[in-house]
Amino acid sequence: MKGHDALGEAEIVAAICALDWQGLTRAELMDAMWAYYFFSIQFRENLLVARALFPGDAKLKALESEECDTANLSPYPGVADEDERLNHDEFMRRAIGLVPMDARRSREIRRHGTRYLEAVRRSDPDARALSIASYERGGLEQVFRAILTAPHWDNPALAAFHHFLRGHLQLDDHHGSLVGHLNTQEKAAPLWLLFHDLLLDCVPCFARAKQAEALPALIVCMPAAAQV
What we know:
mainly alpha
């Protein structure tokens, strides 16, 4: 989907949900968990951008209190103590650490994640702020439900990720009401696209599937002489 800048938010969310979550191995789901960890960092940072742009918005202030320095995912064994307050990306960072990862693979995924965060941080501040509305008004709920169709959740890190996702599904109806007054004006589409492409970078089987889907179209578009 790289380069498809004309796509809208709903179309990109649908493309993320249509990835083969049900076909992931444990290792591949761990890769996706890493990708979501980087997404959770930009979510927190974008929420802070929104708070700075709309400092008097009481609903955004309430959302910040439930996403940052909060105990609403605590306790969780090996990750968060009883009533411990932490940012949700910190929960994800600790959860990932429950299962050791090959050092070379870790460096590769961190490289993808760092590049993704740099791209988000270069994005238009208005788009970053309004992305929170797109995420919380149904977009992330759809993505979480798609991820939860994956079959393997039986290592400590993935079990913690499952807890994270289920916990957010319980929060998201309320969170959606806190951003319902914001019109995203489709400005969040580039940020959704960056997340889609991060998933393809971090989870190789997603990229291979997308390449395979494109092959028939490429063959049709080739000149007749080149098809012989």
